[in-house]
Structure formats: C-alpha cells, structure tokens
Amino acid sequence: MAAPRRARDRATTALLHLQLLAVAVIVVFPLMWVVGSSFGPGGGLANAGPLPEDATFDNYIELFTRTDYGRWYLNSLYVAVLNMVGSVALSALCGWVFARIRFRGRKASMLGILILQMFPSFLTAIAVYMLFLNFGLLDSLTGLALVSIAASLPYNTWLMKGYTDNLPASLDEAAALDGAGRLTIFRKIVLPLMRPMLTFVAITSFTAPWMDFILPRLLLQSSDKQTVAIGLFQLITDQYANDFTTFAAGAVVLAVPITILYIVLQRHLVTGAMAGAEKG
Q: Cβ contacts of residue 44 below 8 Å, gap of 6+?
C-alpha cells in the first residue's frame, strides 16, 4: 500500500509543479516582453520583443528628454502618497472605532460600508465629476487623491476592523484603569499593534492611484497635471506617432518602486492580509 501511495503523491507533486511552471510562464513572459521592448531600437511594434536585437538605452533617454515623464511621475507620486497617508490614517481610526466602541447605528453603518465596497469606484464617475465641477475641484491632483481615499476607505475600514477584533481588549481595559483616554489608548497601544495591517493598507493604497487611469482621465485636464498612466497612454494613441518602445520604458520605470516595496515588505503584506481575513 505504501508504494502506490508514494507514487500517487509523486504524481500529484509533479502535476502541481507543472501547473506552477505554466502559471509562471504565463506571468513572466509578458514582463519579459515589456522589459525587452524597452531596450528595442525604433518605436514600432516590429522592434518590440523579449530579446531585442541591437539593444539600446535610447528609449529611456528619450523618455526623460522628449516627454514630460518626470512631471507625470511626480504627479502620480503626489497622489499616491497622499492617498496612502489619508487611507491609513482614516481606515485605522474607523476600524478601531467600529471594533472597540459600541454606539447606536454601528451595525447599520458597517452594513452600509460593506455594501459600498462591492461597487467599483468608476461606477460613480459621473457623480464624482459633477461634484467636482460644482465645488471647483476639477483638474486638481489633491481632489483626485480625495476621490481615491474615499473609494478605498470602505474596504480598508473592514480590514482594520477585522484585524483590531483579534487584538486583546484586555490591553485597552488595563490602560483605561490607569487613566488613559480613548485616543491615548488608540495612539500608544492599539496603533503599534496594527503595524502589519497598516503596512498592508499603505502599500495597497499607494499602488491603486499609482496605476489608475479612469479617474485621472476623467478629472484631470491640464497637461501639467497629467499622471503617468495618462501620459504613457498618449504615447501609443497619437495620430501621427506611436512610440511603443518608449511606452515600454516608461512602464518599466513605473513598476520599479512598486516592485521594491513588495519585495521589502512582503512579510508584512502576507501577515496583514491573513490577519485581516481571520475575523470581521
């Protein structure tokens, strides 16, 4: 009985490895294609490929000299950082309030947040546009960041609440007996224990507007307010010039900070994701 069982286990392991290899090829090949294309000569798709001939850095040089990529990058960075800071601060506070404080309308509020997070933010694009038009917030990077914060707040609040529910309430009670107020308990006791989830929310909140295209396309109008997504899109949709290799170079540069953050903070991301899903 042992030999057939070992054979089945080996066959199952081999099939799992083959599946993982297939998935890796499917995921890695497009990345190799983009990186290789960024070093390809010329600007057309004919020169794009994972292993370009006559590789050159000209596309990266043209990206920063011929286009406003630096300005686009800083605009995206501003929106992403503002969204990250605002989302972390508000979702941490809201999650702690819903997890620790009992008040009238708590369940109804949580149900409303749960319903809101089921709808993608672009479904409210027309309403957001009209609100921004009436309040004079169109063509504003700060306004775009506020929309991103509002769109991510329901989901992040649920994550923070689920994580806070797993923290021992006895710590709060002991601090309250020592005379600490609620805000002091949150700032000095609960907030440090939220570090894994805070890291997870910070990274996801940074990446969402970093790669967003729909809302910036709708709300931003001036050329000096464009984000990287809009600027790169124009490189391949121009009526007279489609520069796909420069577009690939911009995509590679855009992916660098996200890749570094995910590699450095991988442990915190996994811990935060698993902890936030345990209870909510």
A: 242, 244, 245
CA distance 66 to 77: 20
**Residue 239, C-beta contacts closer than 8 angstroms, at least 6 positions apart:** none
Give start and end residues of each alpha helix (H) in 166-277. 169-177, 182-185, 191-193, 195-210, 214-219, 228-235, 244-264, 266-276
What is the value of pTM for the model shown?
0.82
- Residue 107 contacts by C-beta under 8 Å, 6 or more apart in sequence? none
Of the candidates 104, 106, 84, the residue with the CA atom closest to the CA atom of residue 95: 106
The model's pLDDT over 194-253, given as tens digits with 9 standing for 90+, comes to 888 888 888 888 988 888 888 888 888 888 889 999 988 888 886 666 778 888 889 899
- For residue 192, what are its two tokens? 């440090």
CA dihedral 168, 172, 175, 180 (to 10 degrees): 160
Please give the torsion angle defined by the CA atoms of residues 130, 132, 138 and 144, in that order, rounded to the nearest 10 degrees.
Answer: -120
Using left for φ > 0, alpha for ψ between -120 and 50, and beta otherwise, residue 212 falls in beta
Q: How far lies 231's CA from each of 208, 236, 237, in Å?
A: 17, 10, 10
Q: Which two tokens stand for residue 118?
A: 């089921």
Which residue matches tokens 């450095």? 264
Tell me: the pLDDT tens digits for 125-142?
Answer: 888 888 888 888 888 999
